[in-house]
Write a structure and sequence with these properties.
It is built from two helices and three strands. With 105 residues, it is an alpha+beta fold. The chain has one domain (2-98): Pantoate--beta-alanine Ligase, Chain: A,domain 2 (2-Layer Sandwich), CATH 3.30.1300. The N and C termini lie far apart (76 Å).
Length: 105
C-alpha cells in the first residue's frame, strides 16, 4: 500500500530534478551566448549558446534564437527529458543586455 505512494514520490523528485537541470542548462547557455554576442555579434553568440547546451545536455529539441540591436538578447528553448510517457515540460530561458561597441573618442 505504501510502495506505490513512495514510487510516485521518488518519480516526482527525479522529474523535478531533470526539469531543474534543463532550466539551469538553458539559462547558462543563454548567458554565455549573450556574453559572446555582446562583443562578437549575434550569430557567434547563438553558436556559443548552441555549443554550451549541447555540451551540458539535459535539454531535447533545442532551439536557439536572438535579437540584435542596441540591446542583444539570446533565447534558448527546448523540452526537458521526461520519466512519464506523454509528459512534455517545455523550457525557455533568455538573457539580454546592451551590446558593447568601441568608438573613437
Amino acid at each position: 500500500m505504501v510502495f506505490p505512494a513512495v514510487l510516485v514520490l521518488v518519480l516526482t523528485v527525479l522529474q523535478a530534478g531533470l526539469y531543474w537541470h534543463a532550466r539551469d542548462a538553458a539559462l547558462s547557455a543563454a548567458q554565455q551566448g549573450l556574453a559572446v554576442a555582446k562583443v562578437s555579434g549575434l550569430s557567434t553568440g547563438e553558436s556559443r549558446a548552441a555549443s554550451v547546451i549541447t555540451s551540458l545536455g539535459g535539454l531535447n529539441q533545442t532551439q536557439v534564437g536572438g535579437v540584435a540591436g542596441n540591446e542583444v538578447s539570446i533565447v534558448v528553448s527546448g523540452v526537458s527529458p521526461s520519466l512519464v510517457p506523454g509528459l512534455t515540460l517545455r523550457v525557455r530561458e533568455a538573457s539580454a543586455g546592451f551590446s558593447e561597441g568601441y568608438g573613437a573618442p
